[in-house]
Amino acid sequence: MGFIETWWPVAVIAVDISIRIAAIIIVPRNRRPAAATAWLLAIYFIPFFGVLLFLLIGNPRLPRKRRRKQDAINESIRETSEHLDFGTLRPHAPQWFNSLVTLNRNLGAMPLSGDNSAHLISDYHKSLDAMAAAIRGAKRYVHLEFYILQADNSTEGIFAAMEDAVARGVTVRVLLDHWANRGKPKYRRTLRRLRAMGAKWHLMLPVQPLRGRYQRPDLRNHRKLLVIDGTLAFMGSQNIVDSTYNLRKNIRRGLHWVDLMVRLEGPVVASVNAVFLSDWYSETDESLADQIDVFSVESGPGDLDCQVVPSGPGFRFENNLQLFASLLYYAQDKIIMISPYFVPDEALLLAVTTACNRGLQVELFVSEEGDQAIVYHAQRSYYETLLKAGVRIWMYPKPYILHTKSLTIDDEVAIIGSSNMDMRSFGLNLEVSMLVRGDEFVREVREVEDLYRERSRELTLDEWRQQPLRSTVLDNLARLTSALQ
Asked: Is 319-481 in CATH node 3.30.870.10?
């Protein structure tokens, strides 16, 4: 008995030291310094729980098989699209824009295309109606991929349109994120509706270990896109769900989401479709290359230059972060960012503050109220640095959650898509963004920005300095947890 009493604490200390030494070797490998530091702090201060958490969500990459699929898809897209005509590009592109296009091509494989039209839809219900109308006009296929998909009163038109399309012999393929929808209101009802109509549907990134499907549970497919017959597409920030997300806590607080979608025609639709087909193949092992000539494109009614940029843990690099950071450095006059969750890494924060020091007009639109406490407080921890640098911060008023994701620089280039400017969207979510060159499209985005500005109030540095100490503590603690990737 005495031997056990003597050696038990020694064994515990030995295990504890072993964990700490192993952590120093394992954790920092191929990981950002900030993320590595956050994990090491968690493991050092709460060693056993920290190790368990690291084993559960410490790997920010998709399984190797899935990453190899993405590599093969990228190579196929490059080879297939290498010598194809994707419309006439706008003249007099600045050299930095050409280098940005090369960056996106190297990272995400998609080509730049011309002769596109792109029009924004900023009204939540008009967007749902426009997508329903597009589905009703489908003749061959409907490809629908959304992070959250719920059959409710607001989305009835879309589900009825899909049912009608299937009845007419149109192939309807649907992808929805498993973890984002699982356990949510209308989930089982939605799946029953998809089965009953005869749609071909699959869950994205399913966490079903008993079925042999498992990866880090907080890796999500956050994309939102719809493709009709390869000639018409929609993409942006909006999910197919009621603007309250049908959650009791949102309804109780009166929260509604504000989003932005873009309607596309022209060669760029092929790239949006390629993203869907890539995800379909990744989830099902079914290649549709023999059924759909994805890069058989037609010129659209406009002359915008567009390039789709997919990103996420299936890629070797953080495609969206590199795109955003590059644009911030290329800007010469002004930068306007809209992101519901603004939690930048060091590189993006430096790009923003550098832009201010270069004398540029820099504005950031965020929500006054948050729907996710940790992200909300992590975001707030950056406000003082941003305000001191000269960023104008606009707070979209309660009870609305400004969910739009866009970035404009100067008066010629814009980005719109599903990607927030936060570390989750950079490292853990599968996202899709679109780069657009064309002053007429930027004017449309500017009109939306002006509308948001009219509805928002500006946060000042004097006001921010009146924050109570407890808020500052919460903000800083949340900032530490945001680096756990």
From this structure: yes
